[in-house]
Amino acid sequence: MRRLRTMTGMLQFVRSSPEVLRPSRNPMLLDFILHKLMRPATPLLLMLAGACYVSALWSWRPLAVAKLAVVVAALAIVVTGLALVAPRWMAPRLAALGFAGRLIFMPLRAISRALRADWDVWMPAKGMTTKLPGT
Question: Of the candidates 40, 38, 36, which has an alpha carbon nearest to the alpha carbon of residue 26?
Answer without folding.
Answer: 36
